[in-house]
Amino acid sequence: MAPRSSVPADLEALASCIAEYAKSPDFVNYGEGMDKTKVDPAKILQYSALWRSIRKLHPSLLFSQSTMESILCLVAEKCAASWARPLTASEQPEFRTRMARRMRTMARHINQTKVKHPQTQWYVELVGPEPASMEGWFVGYDHELGKAWRSSSTGASVREYADRVLLTGEKPIAVFKDNMSVELDDVTVEELETKVEPPPARQQSGGLWEGERDGVRLRVARRES
């Protein structure tokens, strides 16, 4: 396997991406010590849109200090007209150093969680579940019950239903009790978002539809008269 690069292919594109979220020179508030700062999920989630955009351009989120400082130099140039005032020449070095450390520390915490605890709730909210390998499993969606299911290829007649369905990506993602997550191909996000027909009487929950949107559990139920 080739080593992941800490040098992004397009610094200009990354600078433009970050500049969209840099409303002031102090646009990221996070610890600057990569080995001392503790993971702060609440703060990381404040910048979820920023990190999703960065991941599209540089999925590894690996940056050397010098590379990130080069990117931030471009960010300062792009944002000079929109900030309350442009940074002076003497302020530039401190800005690049300080913000690069904050960005790299946050990126490191995201990567460490991805490797060690990829199903941690805040990480799932940040980037969405990492689809698991489906070798040895059959997966589908039961439109009558309104539930996603899986069954082992060695015991296909026994179905296990998903704990929840996330509607945060292009496809619905079923999440099972062991935190295995997988994209569903036989139902769309649009179908689940607009589903209003009541299920057959054999559905035990009594609801019309259950799922998750943007990390929030949703349940549509009949109004009792």
Task: Name the structural class.
Answer: alpha+beta
For the sheet with most strands, the description reads: 3 strands, antiparallel
Unreliable spans are: 1-6, 201-205
How many β-strand stretches?
8
| Widest beta sheet: strand line-up | 1-2-3
Order of helices and strands: HHHHHHEEEEEEHEE
- Percentage of residues in helical conformation: 25-40%
| Termini Cα gap | 62 Å
Q: How many DSSP H or I helices?
A: 7
State Rg.
22 Å
Molecular shape: elongated
Task: Kindly give the count of domains.
Answer: 2
Mean pLDDT: 82
Report the portion of residues in β strands.
15-25%
Protein traits:
225 residues, alpha+beta, disordered N terminus, three-stranded antiparallel β-sheet
Provide a descriptive summary of the structure in words:
By secondary structure, the protein is of the alpha+beta class. It has two domains: 117 residues, no CATH class; 85 residues, no CATH class. It is 35% helix and 16% strand. The protein is built from seven helices and eight strands. The chain has a three-stranded antiparallel β-sheet, with no helix packed on it. Strands 4-5-6 form a three-stranded antiparallel β-sheet, with no helix packed on it. A two-stranded antiparallel ribbon has the order 7-8. A hairpin with a 2-residue loop joins strand 7 and strand 8. Helix 1 packs antiparallel against helix 3. The longest helix is centred in the middle third of the chain and has 25 residues. The N terminus is likely disordered.
